[in-house]
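Write out the 3D structure for:
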Amino acid sequence: MTNNIHVLVIPYPAQGHVIPLMEVSRSFIRNGLKVTFVNTEFIHKRVTSAWSDIDVPNDLMNMVTISDGLGPCDDRDDLVLLTKAMFELMPTKLEELINDIDKNNEDNITCIVADFCMGWVGKVARKMGIRLALFTPCSAAVVAVAMSIPKLIDDEVINTRGKLLKDDMVQLSTSMPLLDPTMFVWVCMGDPIMNQVLFDYLFLEGNEATKIADRIICNSAMELEHGTFTLFPKMLPIGPLLATNNSTKQVGHFWNEDSTCLTWLDQQPINSVIYVAFGSITIFNQTQFEELAMGLLDTKRPFLWVVRHSTSGSMDYVLPDGYMDSIGTLGKIVNWAPQQEVLKHPSVACFMSHCGWNSTMEGGSNGVPFLCWPYFADQFFDKTYICDVWKTGVSLNKDDTCIVTRGEIKSKVDQLLNNYTIKQNALNLQEKVIDCLQKGNSSDKNLNNFIDWVKEGNAHA
């Protein structure tokens, strides 16, 4: 066993980043590599409090923490505050951590696998002479846009500060879909200050890290983004990662999963249930929440709805008066669901989703059609893939007051569930992406080649 090969893994501190990198780490461990997984102190507490067990050998995986630069009372939902603090303080803290590991451990860090959104790690790796690989928890297209920033500036799509100069559709290559520059992550956030911070810290730093990195691995599949991987061959698809995890419990969640929903699903007709889940960040106002509640009721179809509670354990929304009596056994509401198991369940007919990339991969690898309701960041890109490229879903549209109405919800549910073509497209996509994971095929081969590359490394001085 090659225990002496020691990999340090560091995600961006958000659930959609921690979960896939935990999955990558488990692949490393299954292949005899030693992993030190670095969370911020705040995220580490949330992750470890939500899991009941983690099926990896303790001697091959060590969970450690470093400070995110914020105080205990600071608002970590403030992305501007959090991002600036991380990029200013964490490089020094990571250096100290690596030096401590190397001093107190016979197996020195030989490779760092860092989240693309933690581009500052590239400078640490270069300074310390450690090989670097980047991991992209988002679509390869989002990283392709980051890697194309110089070209976008030359073509006068954006200026050097990332500001949009024209909003014509952009095509990075003829083999890639048209992209709407108003949906670039650093453009679409609404707040100009946040847009600038994301451009400067995540995308410019991420772009620099892609140049430093020896390898870039992606939670995607060749069949999903063939044009992107052709244009940027340095990016290697190894996913969908979550589809490889058939016999083990998914870890990295920030909330405890309510598995009673699986028993409820067992009691529903095949291909009947609307699964509704908007990830770990999406926030609705009370008006939108009530429209969603009534829209689900108006469909007169069974639904499983994840209503995320706050960290204090309370619901942040108020259900309409008498709502639970109205739905009876037709619907089930849970705080958090074992999503992989839900999407595999034969009772699930469709997935109403924020279109985060993890959810997109999970739904796609299970042949489930989507009702797309993106919230922010790369989710609008993902919706374009689902609705316009793969044609495996439909979009929920807002009215003039920026509300997705109950009527729109009922209409689009009926439209989707009566569309045989979309369902067939979803099943065809499932077959293609699962095939990528089979032994010797693209994702399996890329992952094995990557692990071989990691094993070739020597300990740094």
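The chain has two domains: 6-239+437-456, 260-434.
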